[in-house]
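Below is how a single chain appears once it has passed through the pipeline. First comes the sequence as given, then the structure the pipeline wrote out for it. We keep one example in the README because the format questions we get most often are answered faster by looking than by reading.
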Amino acid sequence: MENQYYTLIEKQDFYEIIENKYGELAIFIDARDNAPVNPVLEFDGKSRALLKRDDRLSVLLDDIHEETREPLAEAEFVLIVELEGKIVNRTYGVPVENVEEIVLNGRRTRADEIVKAKSREELIKSFGAVHCWSCGKKA
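Resulting structure:
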């Protein structure tokens, strides 16, 4: 049994956002391992979005082109296209959630990666605790 007690945020340096004639948006990013689980795209309405692929891995999209901001803020869904080179690895639809701010709390491990520890409550939930005992003396 493998549990992840942290979230990994990878920065996508280069990506493309395209719009078709129906006003639908697609975002082209590098392929990641494993298929996403309940993915969602958070957008701050400015220049940053965070693709939450699953409860372990998120992809940071910085420097969103200013002409793309309004269509992205108005979109209910976007198509994510994951590429290996020029070959499509997978595609999936993702709901867009507009948020006030995207906060990246965590420890930067490389220029393109942030590790964020889960909160106590998140860890207890992912651990699957059925009982919790407080022990020792309180100061």
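Strands lie at 6-11, 16-19, 25-30, 40-43, 49-52, 57-61, 77-84, 87-98, 107-110, 113-117.

See the next section for the split statistics.
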